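User: I'm new to structure prediction. If I give you an amino acid sequence, what do you actually give back? Let's try with this one:
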Amino acid sequence: MFKKILIANRGEIACRVIKTAQKLGIATVAVYSDADREALHVKMADEAVHIGPAPSNQSYIVIQKIIDAVRQTGADAVHPGYGFLSENSNFAEALKAEGVAFIGPPPVAIEAMGDKITSKKIAASAGVSTVPGHMGLIEDASEAVKIANQIGYPVMIKASAGGGGKGMRIAWTDAEAREGFQSSKNEAKSSFGDDRIFIEKFVTQPRHIEIQLLGDQHGNLLYLGERECSIQRRNQKVIEEAPSPFLDAATRKAMGEQAVALGKAVGYFSAGTVEFIVDGNRNFYFLEMNTRLQVEHPVTELITGIDLVEEMIRVAAGEKLRFGQDDIKLNGWAIESRLYAEDPYRNFLPSIGRLTRYRPPVEGKRDDGTVVRNDTGVFEGGEISMYYDPMIAKLCSWAPDRATAIDVMGRALDDFEVEGIGHNLPFLSAVMDHPRFRSGVITTAFIAEEYPDGFAGVAPAEADAKKLAAVAALINQSVQRRSAQISGSLANHQRPVGADWVVTLGGFTLPLHVKDGADGTVVAFDDGTSLAVSSDWLPGHLHANFAVDGAGIGVKTSRSGTGWRLRWRGMDVVAHVRSPRVAELAKLMPVKLPPDTSKMLLCPMPGVVTSILVKDGDAVEAGQSLATVEAMKMENVLRAERKGTVKRVAATAGESLAVDELIMEFE
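Assistant: Good question. You get back a string of structure tokens that encode the predicted 3D arrangement of the chain. For your 667 residues, that looks like this:
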């Protein structure tokens, strides 16, 4: 077994590998850039080596700098994690030349499967079902349009070396094919240094289902069930689960056997994933093979009980797998939610800054047997950098069945506290309660179809509004009683705490009466209904558990002006608790209107302006591209919302802008 492993990565996956290495008694080495000097993976490792400036193309993906770190520390193996150099065959070959083990597959398999054009040809020859498409290289946008017409719209334009949703566009028209080709080419060159593009048929009503492979260097190759990854946004996975609610045993077996056949065709060993697109009739088509550990590997670990990182290390050390295909059993259900530094209220655009509060839910097995796991690479007070992927954490839940696993995830998301940056916790919570997601009838178009205008939060239904009103009433009662107990007041002059209040929140006005009952505080509403509510909440608490009508809920609470901001299950409301007379007067107060920015194009997120496509005085049409902004390795095209004329362009290409800085204004 190895004595020292260097992890050629950063963030949560570096921390994840370090944990398993520590379990096996193996020393670890972290590498870090300028931006990651204080990162969690650096603190967790036994040693750490600085490898350069913040941009990954000057640090994490410079092979020689990793090799130098290996030499400096005497590491005898390297785990690449995912992304960066994990699927770079030259890196694997360089380590081999150094006499250092690469904890991953053989270079020949990485090279064959890393090129999506080559991999599809190998898959077809191995008897794996493939999607119709043009596997040759495409020279320019005109040729892309021609090929797209031959295949038939819709088509998927993809970077040959792509991954993580980068360099991918769906085109339904010639115009979209032309623009998508150029954007994919630009993103591919920026992210991978390889701008080759190919086109394939886009399968409608598709589900994204992948098979986990695990093999050793002695010819044993197994499949460990599947993962459903259909909840995606811009081709980037957001929520994954294992197993899939859609597959039957026969389809699972067929997909698994084809994945193994593909792996054997390239002499595969270590962990790897074969991704398929599955249509509504359970026809499946090979998409790509990821010759590395997947981001979503924890859900497979939770239902199989197999530590994939441990097995990767053992395989790289030459050990045989300790189990066979018949030993693989799928137990229960697991769900993973990717917590991203993306603002769902701004169309999921990247958000950077300091984590002023970071309190994940408690990990481990619960009293009811369910499990919560959180893989993360950040800490309270740490920075989310603009240079890397926006993932903050991967929150996972396990339960004996899917419905319970969803419920456990929903509660864990409620209990996850993140402040200081924009993040997608409200959106993830909303998905957990979405009837379509809970039914399992989902496709990769789920987010686009269910949130066509973006995410604006969850509007509370009346039942939920009453629960939150009861929470607000309890908080108010606690604060009022605390204020009434000020010491030093004259005898018989204590301020009485009223029992009748009016709560306004989320468009509801709810008169109510608060009284003490056997089950704690009872909140009685005007319509005759009542809710018993109790909590350990105290002033200053930003999160608390409330028992409402016998059910526990976790609510984030904070002051907002004269009201209370309450966040729960994707709802974000300000509750005002007023006496009946003050509530009457409040109705007469004028509403302050927000500033008019309708004639301005503002930078939607911190980033670099890569191009300005119009100039002063230009007439623009609705939907016309105006500028592009790059942030967190993604190129974002900003378009005109309506027809108009450019009055002034305020920004220039190459300029770094903060969120809401002016790019241009219109007449």
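You can read the tokens as a compact description of the fold. Here is one thing that stands out. Residues 602 and 662 are 5 Å apart (CA to CA).
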